[in-house]
Give the backbone structure.
Amino acid sequence: MRLYIAEKPSLGKAIAENLPGVKSRDDGFIRVGTDVVTWAHGHILELAPPEAYNPAWKSWNTAVNVLPYPIECFKLLPKPDSKAQLGVIQSLLSQATEVVNAGDPDREGQMLIDEILEFERVEGADVAPADQRNRPGNREEGVELDAAELGVLQSLPGSKMSVRGRLDHRHEPDRCRD
């Protein structure tokens, strides 16, 4: 079975409409002849919170003493509201003989599907090549960061600052309330 994984439901439906064959819709995917089209909901994986690396970092009083977090390898976890669709994708991947990355043609769109495939550790699947210029590791000088790198860079200041800010202001009255 050839499995198309689109970045979002609307793209998945558009792909299915343009494939030849009888169409039947199921929960989280559309079967078209012998092919199947499924989709992510944009970012269905997110960077793990600090306590996923070290349980002691769940307590902000402890975490503030190790800032910046000494994380060498960042982990991705399913977003709580996306676990069902990720389960659909996992099930379909186990049946696929060929996988087509049908993320949006930009760098982030391709990376979203690549992250899912890497998360699932799909081995032996024939992943259709995307535009090689948009693939990680094939960058030209000065090209912007890919989606994974950008996600890590965006999360670090926020997680560090939220811990520090919360501890610095924990005794002050809430200024947002009347």
About this structure: The chain has a mean pLDDT of 76.
